[in-house]
């Protein structure tokens, strides 16, 4: 059953459960939940609402709406909110940590292996295949997200198209364009009677003195990524590319594609790729700083407005702003597919692998992405040694 199915009854009676049970569930989901944000939020609905009946349909929908409204990774924010429902800040903190920790440890281990074995032909060959398949996976995800988000509204198509073109031309996500899209849709769909700022929660990002340590630069950059990037986990890809490759030069383009591939190889939130990137830049401390700086804003953006969201979350002006921001984020993802594809798909075997991944996922919607990733890794190895 779809998580958005309006036929689901909201009168499900929640059953008692302990915080330990909920934390254990999210620890297991973080260790075994593949498929990105759409799959993860679907697992939460199936397990917590339908099967165990720990969370009511109404609480789940409110959490999903808040996660879509606030910047940051969708699945992680929903998990944090569901922990908050019955156990407050402690529940939100424990479920968030349990959900992120398994995949963080996995990407750190892969980061170590990547650095240690990075020069070996077999690892390069495996990532060649995986990187090509990832382009197809991101492309089909972007296609589905665009169809679902933009629909048939001309204004949304225009704003999404502008964001896509801007991302291709600048090879980075323009934050001002994303926010401007939100304002435009807000003014068109729900024009304010007067200047009302009560529905939005402005915040200031602290500016630290410039220091030479890469850890400070990592903290500031990834804090911006967590605080300003809207949409699903894939929405952070163009923002990260513009920073870690174009602006700071921390990673090469191939290393960045490998980082995205690692995120697809591991369960849990796609955004956990920041841990892999941080490890490549500054070792284990860099991985910790990058992950903490990315997830801390989304944690705060979930627990701080949670008590008030039920009262203000249905306001037309806020919904309109979110529509504009979301469509711009989708456009940026579409542009990122083109940018990354130009770098990764440099020969016919890579193009074929990407098209196969796209075509298989288009034809078989329930095909596990992990199986494609594994097959692509094997294909890369065979192509290398053939």
UniProtKB/TrEMBL annotation:
Transmembrane segments: 87-113, 125-143, 155-187, 193-211, 218-241, 261-282, 289-308, 320-341, 348-364
Topology of this chain in the membrane: Multi-pass membrane protein
Annotated compartments: Cell membrane
Keywords of the record: Cell membrane, Membrane, Transmembrane, Transmembrane helix
Main subcellular location of this protein, as a coarse class: membrane
InterPro entries documented for this protein: Chr_Tranpt_l_chain, CHR_Transporter, Chromate_transpt
Keyword check for Transmembrane helix: yes
PANTHER family, per database record: CHROMATE TRANSPORT PROTEIN-RELATED, CHROMATE TRANSPORTER
Family according to the record: Belongs to the chromate ion transporter (CHR) (TC 2.A.51) family.
Protein name: Chromate transporter
Organism listed in the record: Nibrella viscosa
Biological classification of the source: Bacteria, Pseudomonadati, Bacteroidota, Cytophagia, Cytophagales
């Amino acid at each position: 059953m779809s998580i958005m199915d309006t036929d689901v009854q909201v009168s499900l009676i929640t059953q008692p459960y302990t915080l330990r049970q909920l934390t254990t569930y999210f620890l297991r989901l973080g260790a075994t939940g593949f498929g990105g944000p759409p799959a993860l939020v679907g697992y939460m609905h199936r397990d917590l609402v339908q099967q165990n009946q720990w969370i009511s349909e109404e609480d789940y929908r409110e959490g999903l709406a808040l996660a879509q409204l606030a910047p940051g990774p969708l699945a992680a924010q929903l998990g944090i909110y569901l922990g908050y429902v019955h156990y407050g800040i402690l529940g939100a903190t424990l479920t968030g940590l349990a959900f992120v920790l398994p995949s963080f440890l996995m990407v750190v281990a892969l980061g170590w292996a990547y650095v240690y074995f990075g020069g070996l032909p077999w690892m390069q060959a495996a990532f060649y295949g995986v990187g090509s398949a990832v382009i197809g996976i991101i492309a089909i995800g972007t296609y589905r997200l665009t169809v679902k988000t933009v629909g048939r509204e001309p204004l949304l198509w225009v704003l999404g198209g502008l964001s896509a073109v801007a991302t291709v031309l600048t090879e980075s996500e323009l934050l001002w364009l994303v926010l401007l899209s939100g304002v435009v849709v807000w003014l068109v769909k729900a024009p304010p009677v007067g200047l009302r700022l009560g529905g939005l929660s402005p915040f200031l990002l602290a500016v630290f003195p410039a220091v030479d340590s890469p850890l400070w630069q990592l903290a500031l950059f990834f804090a911006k990524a967590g605080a300003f990037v809207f949409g699903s986990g894939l929405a952070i890809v163009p923002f990260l590319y513009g920073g870690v490759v174009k602006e700071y030069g921390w990673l090469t383009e191939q290393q960045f594609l490998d980082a995205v591939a690692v995120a697809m190889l591991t369960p849990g939130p796609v955004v956990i790729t920041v841990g892999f990137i941080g490890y490549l830049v500054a070792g284990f401390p860099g991985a910790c700083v990058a992950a903490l700086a990315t997830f801390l804003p989304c944690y705060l953006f979930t627990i701080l407005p949670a008590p008030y969201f039920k009262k203000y979350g249905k306001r037309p002006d806020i919904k309109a702003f979110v529509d504009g921001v979301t469509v711009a984020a989708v456009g940026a993802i579409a542009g990122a597919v083109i940018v990354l594809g130009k770098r990764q798909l440099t020969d016919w075997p890579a193009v074929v692998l990407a098209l196969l991944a796209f075509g298989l996922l288009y034809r078989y919607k329930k095909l596990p992405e992990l199986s494609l990733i594994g097959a692509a890794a094997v294909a890369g190895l065979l192509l290398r040694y053939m």
